[in-house]
Amino acid sequence: MFNNILSKLRRPRPPEPAPAEPLAIIGDVHGRADLLGAMLARIAQEAPDARPVLAGDMIDRGPDSCAVLTRVRALDRAVVLRGNHEEMMVAFLDSPAENGGWLRHGGDETLRSFGIAAPEADTATRDALRRALPPGTEDWLRALPCHWISGNVAVVHAGADPRVPIPDQNPRHLLWGHPGFGRFPRRDGLWVVHGHTIVDKPRRGNGVISIDTGAWRSGRLSAVILSQAGSRFLTVGP
Asked: Which fold has domain 18-88+139-236?
């Protein structure tokens, strides 16, 4: 037991997050176009050189997913990741009858934001959504990556298997989480920034930075600013 304690005391401190360029990583927006606008304005004022990174789940639950997608697609230099809600939307576009559960998990609000009233899990609703999506949006959604790495910082939506290099991860773990994520340290020195799991306030520790503060429910959208100079959190809303 004494040797185990001594070994922990001697374990080198993990490196600080050090992206290759300044980053502004934004948590789950979930249809809150108002909060996204406020966050982007705050970033422009306080970290104008930071590259915007969206950690997925831009859509569903909140009232204005249509406006969120329009705003995000127009962002300069932005990196946009796929979340499990974008995954569900794409699956609905592929096969609405088999993937109608999306409507119960926020897809209903997304469809209404595109002007589709009383949506059903059928081809008529799917076709209406395709007509309502701005040109190129469906292809853009399908092409969203599940991870992005800059320096020793990896951004994913939900989590990652701590034993597996980020590029080799099962996409399901990146989109929906992994039971070992945050419980066991990574051995590659990467910090993993993620959303998906709601926390009362953004936090960092043990190589993990959590930034989903439940914007659709709490009214608070959070982000982390990372650079060689250090890290800090931003939150907009009450």
From this structure: Purple Acid Phosphatase; chain A, domain 2 (3.60.21)
